[in-house]
Amino acid sequence: MKGATPGARATMSDSGWSTTDVFNDYLEHYFLQYAARTNENQLILLLLDGHTTHTTPKLTRWRKSKNLHLLLPTRALIPFAATS
C-alpha cells in the first residue's frame, strides 16, 4: 500500500464485500497481534454484530482454538441500536 504507515496491511474480497476470509485475516494478522493478554490461555471476549461473516463453523473453530469468545448482542441488550 503506497504511502501507508509501515506495517499496515489491507485485505479485500473479490466482490468488495466483507467475507469470512477477510474477517479472519483481520483477526489473525491484526487483532491478535495487538490484543493485550499475557499468555495464549487467557480468554478474549469479542463483542460483534450478528453478520454472517462472524458466525461460520470454520471461523468458530478457529476462534475457539485461539481462545477468542464471541458475544453477539441483540437489540434487547443494546436498545440504542434499535431504530424506528
Q: Uncertain spans, ≥5 residues at pLDDT below 50?
A: none
Number of H- or I-type helical stretches: 2
Judged by helices, strands and strand pairing, the structural class is alpha+beta
Structure summary, number of beta strands: 2
Kindly report how far apart the N and C termini lie. 40 Å
What order do the SSEs take from the amino end to the carboxyl end, as H and E? Answer: HEHE
- Average pLDDT, rounded to a whole number, is 79
Main sheet makeup: 2 strands, parallel
Shape, per Cα inertia axes = globular
Describe the strand arrangement of the main beta sheet, using strand numbers. 1-2
Number of domains: 1
Radius of gyration: 15 Å
Helix content range of the residues, please? 25-40%
Beta-strand residue fraction = 5-15%
Kindly describe this structure.
Residues 9-74 form the DDE-1 domain. This is DDE-1 domain-containing protein. It comes from Dreissena polymorpha. One of its GO terms (molecular function) is nucleic acid binding. There is one protein chain. The protein is of the alpha+beta class. It has one domain (20-81). Helices cover 29% and strands 10% of the residues. It has helices at residues 20-34, 57-65, and strands at 44-47, 68-71. Strand 1 (44-47), helix 2 and strand 2 (68-71) form a beta-alpha-beta unit. The longest helix has 15 residues, at 20-34. The N and C termini lie far apart (40 Å). The mean pLDDT is 79.
